[in-house]
Amino acid sequence: MIQAPVRVRVEQFSGDVLGIGTPTPRLSWEYNCPVPENAKAEIRVERRKPRHGANESTISVDSSQNILLPWQFEPLDSRELVNVFVRVKTDKETSEWSRPLFFDVGLLMPHQRVADFVGPSWPEAGTDHRPQPLVRTEFTIREKPVLARLYLTALGLVSARINGHRVGVDQLNPGWTSYDNRLECWTYDVLDLIHEGANALGLLLADGWYRGRVGFDGGEANVWGDKIGAFAQLEVTYANGERQSLYSNSSDERWKTTLGPIVRSNIYEGETYDARKEMPGWDRPGFDDSSWQPVAEIPFDEHKIEFPVMRSIQPDKIQEDRTIHVTAGVEPGTWLIDTGQNASQRLKLHMHGLKAGQEISVQHAEVLDKEGNLVTTILKRGHQLDTYISNGKDGWWEPEFDMHGFRYALVKGWQGTLTHEDIKCTVYHTAMERIGWFDTSNEMVNKLSENTVWALRSNFMSIPTDCPQRDERVGWTADIAVFSPTALYLYNAAGLLRNWLRDLAFEQKKNGTVPFYIPYVPMGIWSDPQAIAIWGDAAVLVPWALYMATADKDALQEQYPAAVTWVNEVHGYLSPDGVWDRRPEYALGQLGDWLDPTAPPESPDQAMTAKELVATAFYIHSCDLLAQMAIVLDNDDDRKRFSHFAEVSRAGYGKRFVAANGRMTSDTQCAYTLSIMFDLVPDKTLMEGFGNRLAELVRSSDWKIGTGFAGTAYILPALAKSGHLDEAYGLFLSTKCPSWLYQVSMGATTTWERWDSMEPDGSLNPGGMTSFNHYALGSVNNWAYSTIAGISPMSPGWKTIKVAPRPGGGITHASAKHLTPYGLISIAWNIDSDSHCMHLSLHVPYGATACLDLPGTRQEWLKGGDYQRQYSL
After folding, report:
1. Annotation marks residue 647 as catalytic
2. Which of 105, 136, 163 finishes a domain?
3. What's the pTM?
4. Burial of 761 by CB count in 10 Å (0-12 exposed, 13-18 middle, 19+ buried)?
5. What is the mean pLDDT of each run of 10 residues along the chain (873 residues)?
6. Are residues 556 and 669 in the same domain?
7. What is the DSSP letter of 448?
8. Is there a single domain that holds both residue 474 and residue 534?
9. Could you say which of 30, 306, 450, 753 is catalytic?
10. For residue 1, is it within any domain?
11. 753 tagged catalytic
């Protein structure tokens, strides 16, 4: 019997969603049973406009069109509510309908965004540490409605309350974008929060990224504006179809504002909350706001408001079992909290027994020094210090508009005993579905993989940041360029990355090149963007990784012009032989193999591998990927042009960087790695020699890593590709400093920025820049998934899957699961030491095909289903 399709989705969202931003959304679904080749998929769409009734349509498509199927119906209108059902039908039988997918449509047309941005109407002194305002209004509902939507965004950050209840669970909305390009608007179902009669809407505002000081080297304040304000559009529909609307504005004299109890707030530095300034009932009807002032309107182009392609920042739904330890500090009234996990999170404390005016401070940090003290020097300006000033009443308190990257916290000013019952700890990140898992018989390898998951969670905070704790926290392009394949294996991060790429394209046009980080804010020596290899190559590497993970051709097409512009720009910097040796007009020049472990602590760009070698290698790689993009997008002229670019530069690369003795002029792990992985030298004999030399360098290094950002993601694949699997495992499993598992041996719960962020004796790297929560070095896990467990995509969207486990390193079993667009691919293998056999269990998702490739056997092509295999080793 044919079963009903499962996991019906719209665009790249998982599950139901409010406020999509397109009238023609694409649909996807999966099958959990074999589907006959002649089967059809019937799609039933029930659509309803709040004021115009409902209608239903059904169409039929080939059952194989179940991934990002273009919209087959009349375009949707703003506010339209949609239920989607899918079933499978053949000549002989018909499945049940799938569970319904529900979504509705945002305000697609600019003129439908009627509300204004409103905020404080008084002069605000200074540029930092300003008290944060409240905004409120009241409205009357004549009868219980059948539908209610709140459309909400802000210049700054906003959190809404209706009748004393928080709207949604989102944090730090509307998130961080290039605000001069676009601003995201979030949609909320508030039907259960409003009632017949008098109601109140309250808004808490904060500076956030928009006006608050952001970034390093002192940071910058008021980057996008010096006035904050909220956009709130509440639309209520009654049973008879009549709509009642409430718009934030400064003209009807119904919106009031005043200063609230948050007396200072900065995402990086922390928040100060003065409970004495609380105004109970301010977000409920009947509150006396006669002392409040009228709001002021903040002009903003409504054309720049858009509805998101991603979820918002939310509490992590996976509540991991963590025991929070609390110990008394050295000084009276101080208590040290150990949450057990470095993460982007916030503490909620039960404030009790305090006198009015008594202060409690909470300092957050990632690690402790050798004496057991919080390490705060590496935070620089990002103090991560929260302060609570009591009003003499008991209650729970959690900061509203900051976020901290920490494991430890020191509470000061606490009278009496602080226990774990007084503490709640919540992890936050952009809401994404977990879609990838990995496990082996080696617990240190498992810990490395899980540390990478935590680093991803901590840094996927509206944008892909590089760290969640210090005064940096920006969207560095190189980090995500090398990490995106790993990220897309672990989480459905497609929406977040597509969202970020839109700002990359904007900042590229605005600045004349791909800046070092996105959104871009000029800071320190980074104030004049120049074309830098790897960093700029994110314009190509990230969209290609996104396409391989999802088969989203529209996303690829959207980013293609930026990718072309990047490669064309770099092409203009090349010497006649195709080598990128022109030094950028930038203090550090190229950044090269950034954070090579041999680089001096204060000079992370001083790697062993020549910068022009690295730059040329990545340029060729981007040309190759761009040629593949051109094939996908049916642009043969571009394919030929970028293939020619790559051909010319390959010839120049070989002449410049390969010595007469067959060695690379930079005799380094990185140089051979890039040459092997990017196929930079067509001579097979030379390539064989490169593999042998790379393996020799790994052995002679005493199994220590010798690569930075440029080589780390590729060195193990290069060793395996060149026939040196034993060396790959030896390097991967080393616990010597520097290595991946050295960090694990030092008690890391996330991946570090530097190989030696902490020295073996517990002291910190002497460089002024270090972080214990960076994901870039975790890019190695992509090799673990594809080689140890043995699964990777052969074609976009995992339509064809390579299944090729290569056991080694004493690992006796491994398993992995990944939720592909077609469904779950899962593999588990174990080695029987007595029989010297590998036992393998495999599930291939229906609609996909797997190529099973094991050493010493013929390749076997497998359709969707479950398989058991046994092979002699």
Report:
1. no
2. 105
3. 0.97
4. exposed
5. 95 97 98 94 96 91 98 97 97 96 98 98 88 98 96 98 97 98 98 98 98 92 96 96 96 97 96 98 98 97 97 85 90 96 97 97 97 94 96 98 98 95 96 98 98 98 96 96 98 98 98 98 93 98 98 98 98 98 92 96 95 98 98 98 98 97 97 98 94 98 98 98 98 98 98 96 90 97 98 98 97 98 98 90 98 93 97 86
6. yes
7. H
8. yes
9. 753
10. no
11. yes
